[in-house]
UniProtKB/TrEMBL annotation:
<protein>
    <recommendedName>
        <fullName>DUF3103 family protein</fullName>
    </recommendedName>
</protein>
<feature type="signal peptide">
    <location>
        <begin position="1"/>
        <end position="32"/>
    </location>
</feature>
<dbReference type="Pfam" id="PF11301">
    <property type="entry name" value="DUF3103"/>
</dbReference>
<dbReference type="InterPro" id="IPR021452">
    <property type="entry name" value="DUF3103"/>
</dbReference>
<keyword id="KW-0732">Signal</keyword>
Amino acid sequence: MAVSLSHPTRLLASTVGALTVTAGLMIAPAHAAPATTTAPADSVAAVTDRIAARLASEFADEARQTGLLSATSTDPVPLARAAEGTALGRAVRDADREVLEAKGLPQDGTSLLTVRLAHADMVDALRRGTAPLVASSPADDAPTTVTAYDHTGRRIALAADRVPRRPVYLVEVDTATALAKGTQVLRSTLSQRGLSPAAARAAVTPASGYWATQLTSIRLDDDHEPWHKGDAEIFTITAGFGLDGKVKVDTTQLPYLDEDGRTYYPNQLLVHFSDYKYNLADIVMMEEDGGTNYRDLALALTRALLTIVDGGAYIPLVDAIINALPDGWWTDDPDYVDSWYTLSTSTGGTLRGAAGNGTMTVAPYWVAPL
């Protein structure tokens, strides 16, 4: 899912030279300068682009033999399925290590790279024998073209706003796994700097109980989803003042929130007020878009929030969190989706986000003692 941003981001530019439009496919003529990318060589975007080029050309036969390039399904296939001891297998392992580094995640052997058929409408063309292309999702949130590769390694520019007639496989990051590991990095880093509420929550005794905010329904506005973007993973950053007067930050995953324009009914606990000195907290909703560097995000939040001092009255923290987010990451920005100010223990009803992109219904929830 691609969620349009209300928060300004620095977009990466790409140069593809003159293009010729043919049957819904934009192909760079032979005399044109090859398409280039501004993504740094050690970014997620650069890694996925290199793997896409190699899957299209030198590793094409091996990729088909190992079942990486499914001809009938748009479900992602882990690239780690590549045969061990082969050149393709070694290339995938190296690429996975680079992706983990670029995302600020531990080098624990996790494989994040996947490949999928970009759109279900491409299945018929594959069955007719049309030679597929391989691409990676652009780093830019609003690209005009997507760079793909054919079996010779030639770069072909595809229109980003319409589904190509030629089949395309997309190399991507498994954002669900990345988010699960990334939130662990965020919590660990924030905890080391005294910004995590985990200790306060653990101190709540079974005999006391506490108030929480329950998320009963949520909906994000229907944004026109480009063909080259898969489901995104949504998470929230919740902040308030802890019992010690320091800002406390927690993260929550919303793994069910796959589609814009659809209402979900999770009944999920979103804010735990046992964590906070005041009965108020703020929420910022973000989207993991493939290139989020969680180590950098945690450090940016730390630098911004450690300077905020409790003055005896609640201070909204949404602006501080948003201002802490770097203008540009190595690839896709961790997209700002929306924010909600000063939720309290008594907040209930339907709440429209400050950015106008999300609507959620919440209710006070008493977490009873055991």
